[in-house]
Write a structure and sequence with these properties.
With about 300 residues, this protein is α/β, with parallel strands linked by helices. The protein contains ten helices and 16 strands. The chain is globular, with a radius of gyration of 20 Å.
Length: about 300
Amino acid sequence: MGALDRLRALLPPEAAALLAERGEAVTQVRLRAGRPVQVDTDCGSSALSATPLEQGALSGILAALMEYSVYARQEELDRGYFTLDDGSRVGVCGRMVGEGERVRMTGIGSACVRVARPVAGCADGILPFILPADRSPRSMLLLSPPGMGKTTMLRDIARQLSDGGLSVGIADERHELAACHMGLPTLDVGVRTDVMDGCPKALAIARMLRGMAPQVIVADEIGGEDDARALADAVRCGARIVASAHALGLEAALCRPNLRTVLDGGIVDIIALLGPRPGLVEGVWHRDRGEGVAAWRRA
């Protein structure tokens, strides 16, 4: 059962009706204790239920989404989210308490369910930049603010490259790209795709390079120093990478030190920017000579 079906069964009747009314256009459902349920759609609209959601109802909904195994999800909760079986991510906010070197989530006051939905063909416009006429894949970094469809786009890129004849490896740290169950993808990521699920991206990339010989490695939401180092190593080993990162644009990405390492270090050949609406490609840049913004030429 997908995230929307589960939410419709769990929400109070009025909020469930609001969700059903907007149907498959729903991208996010925000649940806040003591406040209305918020439903966001892919056209940018937002609607609120008339009745606030009680704290007890929020706790019950989240417990059900976690299949009443809150303890088993504690490590994810401490990072501010947990992932459903269909790849939908539930972000959580609330009370955090320090325990030695660890910070733990002890009370949840709000949650944001980001609905995972495969959109076959959404990468059609961007694929020719990654796989041009010579059929030699290029490395690409996909940039956008949150909520613009990076994960959906990456999933379709992986599927198309894989079904097109390339061996693809996915570093799926947060279980969102492939939504694996017992190691098997439940979302279509292509027939020639291997998935390293639930493992830190840098470690997953290194293990796949050693064990699976991928031609293309796909990773979502990079940003740390370890991620940048792993991507650079993958390219030096002859693989191509397709990765995503949060940024408002090229200049904003260059202000993040580890992304600057990726962009100025010759690791990627193409930059694509999503926005201002989910799934819309705002611009594509090719690598040129130089560093910083001057190194990139708009296609």
